[in-house]
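[scheduler] slot 2 assigned
[scheduler] job type: sequence-to-structure, two independent chains
[scheduler] chain ordering preserved from manifest
[runner] begin chain α
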Amino acid sequence: MYQILSWTIRYIFIVLIYYFIYSIIRLIYLDIQAINNKGKRNDNPYLKLVNRKDRLDFHVQEFYDLNDSTTLGRGKGNDIQIDDKYISSKHLKITLDEGEYFLEDLGSVNGTYLNSTVIEDVVKLRNGDRIGLGQIEFLFVKEVD
């Protein structure tokens, strides 16, 4: 009886080790894939997903290109639609004005965060700013020539 239990525990331990190695290889693959996708991008400013939980109840892309005026929310009329239950139907708006991008919260219930601070008014975005909403966070990327 002891020998059967010992073998069972060994096999479970080996399976856990292989699962751990698989998880690490998968993360490396996803990082390399994101880097390759970044290389194919144009020079337009974009939002990059920075904190992805292991499992989300909705689909979210790694990158979102920004237009002159981009709305983000749960509703179908937005340029970027994300079905997170903590995001309002019209949550935020990013606009281009005189070569600069500005972030505006559209009266969302749970608020919009810029670098971990709730925004109350329209704020200017800088390269590397973190935009938080719902369960996700984006990095604003505007590459400088």
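[runner] end chain α
[runner] begin chain β
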Amino acid sequence: MTHQQRALPIVTLFMFLSLGGCASWFADDSLDPQVHLLKVEVVRAKLLEQKFMLYFRVDNPNDSSLTVRGLEYRIHLSEFLLAEGEASEWFTVDPKSSSYFQVPIRTNLWQHLREVVKMLKKRDQPIPYRLEGTLQTGIFIGNDVHLANNGEIIPGDFIPE
């Protein structure tokens, strides 16, 4: 057996032993941030186009800053899709704190007008909504955090008497 043939198993052994430590470099035991839809504000409502402003809060439960690169979202109101899209606003959430951001949306509820009117007639009855999407975080190594939040809105809070 030559010198090179004897060295190959030793080099291979050292590579496997040292690569085991590399996996811990990328191990991430941080908690996922939480995203909350705080408010839906009606900006303008016409027959064929409605504009809303969505207000979000991102909670960072970790000891390090969180860079947010964007948000892909789908919002269902009761059983129909209210809006979907992407927001590409970059911001940083400090450790153990929260940050707020707004997303303007435009939609056409014409095809669901009958259902919306029925829901809005009952001003005190809550309307369920569902927020789904992906929060894109990180700078060099991205981490997509999947969202699935449920809540309710009360029509009387948005419609003046």
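[runner] end chain β
[qc] chain β: The CA atoms of residues 37 and 56 lie 5 Å apart.
[scheduler] slot 2 released
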